[in-house]
């Protein structure tokens, strides 16, 4: 985490699909002007967490931070919306850099796929039958067969999302680990997942892929009928998010562990 220096004068405002997000964008553009994303100092994303993830995905490769303001529902990744004193507010922000997961693999029909996930990669059963998945870490089989609704691998930034709903651990943002979490495990019933080094190479092999089809989802991109999925942290991509002073993502993740 670091505090970025001013100035933040060239702002690009983008909005999600909610009417309140469109209204907020119009208000902010009227007050601060509008810059193209290619020339902006900061992208201001107006919406919810889903729109923040969409914005980050669309701007991979651009060296420009994203400051989100909540015009959606959850808003864990967003700052509070206010049209007042935005430039001064941005000058005091704290930056968080996160690295996504890269998912590669093959479908049952032999097609290759490649996708990035900021929160998590999840494997999910496609039918009423449980999935059967073999799990290998760094080339060694660690779980010969997981019978479950699915399994996911998440980043620290994504540990408070689907991972937490699946009873996985909340991970501090500066921890050098990823969380591997089963989703409604049937066998082995007592297995609760594992914490892996961030350098770990994880392979999921779908057993009985034709009879028990499984989809792989990288954030919001789904590939159906997968046979093999490989996941590891990207070492070449870093995404920057800005948060209000004293309300950085690290603090939010810590606070989430004390929410009852």
Count helical runs: 5
Structural class assignment:
alpha+beta
Range of helix content: 10-25%
Q: What is the distance, rounded to the nearest whole angstrom, between the alpha carbons of the first and last residues?
A: 27 Å
pLDDT averaged residue by residue: 93
| CATH architecture type of the largest domain | Sandwich
Computed Rg = 20 Å
> How many discrete domains?
2
What are the segments in which pLDDT stays under 50 over at least 5 consecutive residues?
none
CATH superfamily (homologous) name of the largest domain: Probable inorganic polyphosphate/atp-NAD kinase, domain 2
The rough form would be described as: elongated
How many DSSP E strands?
17
Keywords:
Tumour Suppressor Smad4; six-stranded mixed beta sheet; elongated; alpha+beta; 5 helices; eleven-stranded antiparallel beta sheet
């Amino acid at each position: 985490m670091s505090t970025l220096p001013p100035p933040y004068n060239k702002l690009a405002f983008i909005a999600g699909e909610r009417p309140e997000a469109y209204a907020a964008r119009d208000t902010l553009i009227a007050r601060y002007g509008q810059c193209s994303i290619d020339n902006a100092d900061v992208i201001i994303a107006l919406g919810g967490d889903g729109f923040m993830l969409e914005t980050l995905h669309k701007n991979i490769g651009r060296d420009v931070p994203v400051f989100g303001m909540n015009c959606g529902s959850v808003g864990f990744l967003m700052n509070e919306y206010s049209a007042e004193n935005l430039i001064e507010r941005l000058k005091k922000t704290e930056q968080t850099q996160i690295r996504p997961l890269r998912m590669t693999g093959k479908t049952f029909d032999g097609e290759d796929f490649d996708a990035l996930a900021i929160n998590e990669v999840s494997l999910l059963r496609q039918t009423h039958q449980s999935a059967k998945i073999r799990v290998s870490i760094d080339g060694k089989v660690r779980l010969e067969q997981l019978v479950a609704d699915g399994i996911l691998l998440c980043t620290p930034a994504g540990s408070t999302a689907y991972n937490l709903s699946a009873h996985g651990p909340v991970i501090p943002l500066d921890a050098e680990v990823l969380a591997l979490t089963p989703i409604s495990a049937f066998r082995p019933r007592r297995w609760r997942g594992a914490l892996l080094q961030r350098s770990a190479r994880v392979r999921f092999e779908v057993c009985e892929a034709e009879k028990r089809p499984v989809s792989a989802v990288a954030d919001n991109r789904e590939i159906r009928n997968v046979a093999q999925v490989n996941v590891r942290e990207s070492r070449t991509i870093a995404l920057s998010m800005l948060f209000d002073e004293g309300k950085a993502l690290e603090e939010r993740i810590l606070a989430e562990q004390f929410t009852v």
